[in-house]
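User: My collaborator sent over this chain with a note saying "see what the structure looks like." That's all I know about it. Can you take a look?
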Amino acid sequence: METGKLLTDRVADEIVRSIIGQKLKPGDKLPNEFELAKTLGVGRSTLREAIKTLVSRSVVEIRRGSGTFVSARSGVSEDPLGLEFLTDKVQVATDLLELRFLVEPRLASLAASRCTPEELDDLMHLCDACEKKMLAGDDFSKENTAYHAAIARTSGNVVVPNLAVILCGPPSMLAGTPSQKALEELARTNREILTAIGAHDEMAAYDAMLLHLAQCRRSIAQQSLQ
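Assistant: Without extra context I'll predict from the sequence alone. Here is the result:
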């Protein structure tokens, strides 16, 4: 007979296999608690513990009043590089951005060459959600990460979406906040990336991503002075 802990782990693994087998994407909703418990043949209390385990592993996320969804972080832990323990947050943000300059323009170019209509539609929704938060002055880190991870995913490289999740560190790591002008520029350049990908213009997508990252660098510099 399985112990509660082993049963919970097994159920969590079965949910992961189901997500993979059904090719669910970040943001896709899982069946409700009753249906999932019935499908897996377990009690609802066991299912809840399994879901908690998957939340801690960033495989799924719970949206109060809406349900359980596949996480945009795709199983990446909150701080896999231990950045929380690095005290110079400006240096951390600057160095992460340096890596993004090396990787993301090429990913945007590949996304432009390989983007399907379905993927473009997904990018449009993510860009809209990010822009809405930016222009409202709200925390846009979650939406921004999801958008750039989706661009990486559209490139066709199966590894880099998780890397994008790590590199797009939340602006909250810095003490200051972006100015309204900086937020407007970030939203505009994000939109230019989307336009270039939609036009399947590889060079324009590459350049648009460079411009967006340059704006990120200016924003970091401004925040570091606050």
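A starting point for your reply to your collaborator: The mean pLDDT is 84.
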